[in-house]
Every structure is written in structure tokens, then in C-alpha cells.
Amino acid sequence: MDFPKNFKYTKDHEWIDVQGNSGTVGVTAYAVEQLGDIVHIDLPEAGKTYKAGDSFGTIESTKTVSDLYMPVAGKVTAVNSALKSAPESLQADSYKNGWLVKIEMASAADAAKLLDAAAYEAFIKE
Amino acid sequence: MTDTKTENRKTPLYDAHVALKAKMIPFGGWVMPVSYEGVLAEHKTVREACGIFDVSHMGEVRCKGPDAVKFLQWLTINDINKLKIGGGQYSAILNNQAGMIDDLIIYRLAEDEFFICINASNRDKDFSWIKEKSKEFNVTVTNESDDWAQIAIQGPKSTDVLAAVLSASDANAMRALPYTNIMTATISGKPSLLARTGYTGEMGYEIYIPKAVAHNTWMALLEHSPKFGVKPIGLGARDTLRLEACYLLYGNDMNDHVTPLEAGISWATKIDKGDFIGRDLLAKQKSAGVKRQIQAFKMMDDGIPRHGMKVFVGDSEAGEVTSGSVLPTVGGSGGMALVSTSLKEGDEFFVDIRGAKKRAKIVKRPLYAARTK
Fold first, then answer.
1. Are A63 and B39 an interchain contact pair (Cβ–Cβ within 8 Å)?
2. Is B309 among the domain residues?
3. φ/ψ (deg, to 5) at B363
């Protein structure tokens, strides 16, 4: 299982790729494996503002529905609308084409509190 | 909720599932495979080729004796006198309030001998009820649940797959076996039972084999994978398959507080056959008219309905979803709901999906037309 080294991670299995003040958010390969077949993804409209840890949508598999949590505070600037009609595409690739939302971070420093790839991998092995 | 202190039981096929890298989950006191390669792929395998399911957690009760017919006529809702030797019958047992203790299948093995297949999660509850009620009759009831392993073989190729592990004469008899009927067969060298039935809406069989030969039989069935495309199927696809066919699931679509008339199995409820447990209340309910019943529905908006979600007509609550999912073969999502009888086929309503009211529509049952014949 792959966990890009330049991303930051949460214990709720989201990743964020920070570029300056903006970040791209998605779910990890581990989350995708645990969920099984993904059949529905609910994402917010661009423009919505969230605090760190807020639920910004849901991801649903044949078995269960899980909340998606914001890794850091910020405002949604773009939403991956391709996932609406093809949620299953997330399974093949949850890091590139499977991104969920892009945000403008309230503070770029917030991401420093998140797990790095090694810490996240250690966490899921617990 | 599962008591974490209680060890979940393992079927004789547990090691086989682990070797096949199944995702294992606790289910009704058992640890069972929920999926192998993925629910959607497994669903497709059963609709198009053949899947095998470990259903060893199901229970089996034998009922034998001079009063067996009289007893089962009193205990169950369907008409035992209509059941011929070798036949199978869908039925249910009710509590004194006419609520469903369980739904079950009764097979008639001989004039005065019956074999009853009951739900895994209800094994103990059912058997103690049956045992208690049998006291006034000249019958012996035996809980054989721990003796049998059960494998379901389902899909258009199921006859060919099962024939490959049978003797030529048993295979011929199986090919002639009518839907719902049962026969004896030798499987992995042991006397077994083979019924033409299932829970998927496809052509298929369920075999009852001694526990000791479960693993060998499972492996023998899978050996024909290259030729017939047979694959192991988990509980996840079992649920989506049965839901499309609108087969009820105990604990989801019915429980101790739902009558068979409300559950939509009035076709199996023979109020006029003579007295049986729950009959008087059912007769009253029938003449007064049921207030709520199970209906099939499809979502019109996006979103996936799930068990327990509330149903609304306008602002008024009108029932709840009892089973909901994506519908892999039918398309879209939908399920079954226990709703007010004012809702008829074609009527629209809302499902409250985590606070958002999404449009849905009552459709004709079943969602997927069974191909069992």
C-alpha cells in the first residue's frame, strides 16, 4: 500500500497535499481498502468554510457510510465533481484523480500538526 | 451489539475463507466472510455464472413422529397438508401476538418426518420455542444445527457446478428436481441433503452436508472455477442479491413485532387452514385491514437508503426503510420499507438520508424478477 511521502495524514484516514496556502484533500489507500466497493460520495459546494475535524461530506461503500473530515481549517475552492457519477474510480486511485476537495487553508502552519507518512503507516499497523 | 466477551463462533469453513483472503466480520454471533474480491464483483458472478456461499451458520431442526403434521400445522403459518414428501415450503413461526419469531423453510422428508431450516441469529430462540410447543404432541424435535454444514450454490451455472461433485445418478435426479424440493445425495462420500432453493433470485441449490466434509466439498466445488466461473461469495453480495429479489431478511425487514401480513407474506399465511399460533390476531388484522406493509422502492434522487432511515410523505412520517442498498443489477439504489398502506405502487415519498429528504418511489415487488425456474 502506497502513502505519498510529501502528504500529511489524519487518524481518520484523510490526506492533504499542501502547496503554499492551499491544500488538496482525499482519503488514503488504507481507507479505500477498508471500505470495499465505493458506491456514493457526497461532497460540499465550493465556498463552504470548515474547522479542522468538521465533517465535509460522506463516502459510502456497499456496506457502510463514513464521514469525511477536514484535516485543517479552510474554505473549499474546488470539488472533484467527476466522483459524483463515477465514485468507483476512487478505488483505483485515491491520491491523484481521486482527490475530493481543494481548500484555501486558514493557516498554512496547521498542517504541521498532522501525521507524516511514516507516522500514519505506523498508526494503521497498530 | 455483539458482546465483546463472547467469542464469535467459526463455521467448519473458517480456514478456507481465511486462505481465500476473505474479509471476516462478526454476524449474529458468528465470524463470517463479508466479501472476497468485492461485493459488486461477487454480485455479478452470481447473476452471470455461479457463486458458492458458506451458510453453515443457519440452523436445522428435525421434527419426527406420529403427530408431526398436527404439530407443525399448529406451529407454523403455512398449510403443511399441502406439502408432499420431498417438497419444501416457505413458512414462519409466530409468537402469541402474531409477531414473527422467524421465517423458515420446512422440507418433508417422509410422511411423519420434517427438516426445518431456520435463521442463524434465531437458532436458540426458535429451538426453545419449538421444543416448548412440542410438549403437547407426540413428536421428537432435535436441534441438528451443530451437525450440519450448509453451502449454497447459486447462479445460472449452479446445476453444472453441483453436478460435477455428484454421482451420475444423483446428478440426474438433481436435474429433474423441481423448484423448492429436496432429495438425498451422496456428497464427499457422506449422506447429505440437496434442496433446489436459494436466496439470490437465481437458479440454485442449498446442500446440507456433515461438518466433517464441509472443507472438502467447498474445495471440490471451487475446483470447477476455470470451467464454470464459480467463485466464493460473501454476506455482502448475499444481501444485495436477496434485496434485489425482495426476499425478506429477519431482523431487518421483520421482527417479533411485525406480522406476516405486514411483511407481505400473506401468500404463505393460510388463515383458513385451521387453528395455529397467532391465527386469531391475524384474522382480526386481515378483516380490519393492515395499517402498514413492506413495499419495494427505488430512489429517484441520489443517495443510498439504509435500514432504519425514516420515510416521509410531505412532512408526515409514514414508516421506515427496512433494507436499502445500491442495486447492482437493477441499477440505482433502493430497497424495501415498512410503510403506511396509504402508499401505493407509483406513489412518491421521501427518505430522510442523514437529514436530507431524498425522493423515492414505490415500485412493483420484486425489484429483480427471479430466474429460479
1. yes
2. yes
3. -125, 170
Residues B270 and B344 in one domain: yes
A18's CB contacts (< 8 A; 6+ apart) are A8, A105, A108, A111
B230-232 and B50-54 beta bridge pairing = parallel
A58 to B354: CB separation less than 8 angstroms, yes or no: yes
Which site among A38, A40, A62 would you substitute to test the B interface, given the most B Cβ atoms closer than 10 Å to its Cβ? A62
Chain B residues interacting with chain A (CB cutoff of 8 angstroms):
23, 34-35, 38-41, 236, 240, 302-304, 306, 325-326, 333, 354
Q: In CATH, what number is assigned to the domain containing residue B161? A: 3.30.1360.120
Query: Distance between CA B27 and CA B32 in Å, rounded?
Result: 6
Q: What angle do CA B15, B42, A124 make, to 5 degrees?
A: 60
- Are the Cβ atoms of B304 and A40 closer than 8 angstroms? yes
Q: B325 and A42: CB-CB below 8 Å?
A: no
Give the containing element (helix H, strand E) for B350.
strand B348-353
- Count Cβ atoms below 10 Å from residue B188 Cβ, excluding itself: 17
Q: B270-328, pLDDT tens digit by residue?
A: 999 999 999 999 999 999 999 999 999 999 999 999 999 999 999 999 999 999 999 99
- Residue in chain A lying closest to B304 (CA): A40
CATH of domain A8-125: 2.40.50.100
pLDDT tens digit sequence for B171-204:
999 999 999 999 999 999 999 999 999 999 999 9
Q: Are A16 and A8 in contact (CB under 8 A)?
A: yes
Report the run of H or E that residue A29 belongs to, with start and end. Answer: helix A29-35
Task: State the pairing for strand pair B30-35/B9-10.
Answer: parallel
**What ipTM is given for this predicted complex?**
0.75
- If you compute the radius of gyration of chain A from its CA atoms, what whole number of angstroms results? 13
H helices of chain B, where?
14-19, 39-48, 68-75, 123-134, 158-163, 168-175, 214-222, 225-228, 235-244, 279-288
Nearest chain B residue (CA) to A36: B38
Cα-based angle B100, B101, B103 (whole degrees, multiple of 5): 75
In 3D space, the residue among A47, A4, A45, A48 whose CA is nearest the CA of residue A26 turns out to be: A4
What is the overall mean pLDDT for chain B? 96
The whole-angstrom separation of Cα B156 and Cα B46 is: 8
Neighbouring C-beta atoms of residue B228, cutoff 10 Å: 18
Domain that holds residue B340: 266-363
**pLDDT for residue B2:** 41
| Residues B46 and B152 grouped into a single domain | yes
